[in-house]
From TrEMBL:
InterPro entries: Cro/C1-type_HTH, Lambda_DNA-bd_dom_sf
A molecular function (GO) term: DNA binding
Keywords tagged on the record: DNA-binding
Span of domain HTH cro/C1-type: 7-61
Protein name: HTH cro/C1-type domain-containing protein
Pfam families: HTH_19
Gene3D superfamilies: lambda repressor-like DNA-binding domains
PANTHER family: HTH-TYPE TRANSCRIPTIONAL REGULATOR XRE (PTHR46558:SF11), TRACRIPTIONAL REGULATORY PROTEIN-RELATED-RELATED (PTHR46558)
Taxonomic placement: Bacteria, Pseudomonadati, Bacteroidota, Flavobacteriia, Flavobacteriales
Amino acid sequence: MGVGTNLKRLRSKTKFSQQEIADMLGLDRNTYTNWENETTDIKSQYIPKLAEIFQVSILDLFEAGKNESSYHNLENADLKDNAIGQKDFQQGIIINITDSEAAKIISSQLKELIKSLKK
């Protein structure tokens, strides 16, 4: 199961339309549709935003056959209604990880880092 299938499944669970997701991302609906159909790759800058919209971890967007976790990014809880935190994503690092094991390790390490910074 690819990321497009995961996007379709998550969108179905949230009852959002493709147009609504595209609007939240500031994209044309066709761009989002192409991601779901896996005809084009998702640009890495949109991955954190998609995870936020569906309230899953970034890893959940890419893993096959997993139930979505109820993980809600700690930073997301601090966001006020500002178009899914676009301001908060203007600075930072975008990491495009295609290896599932590497993604698990980095995700785990980032969660621990965020916890330690919040203390």
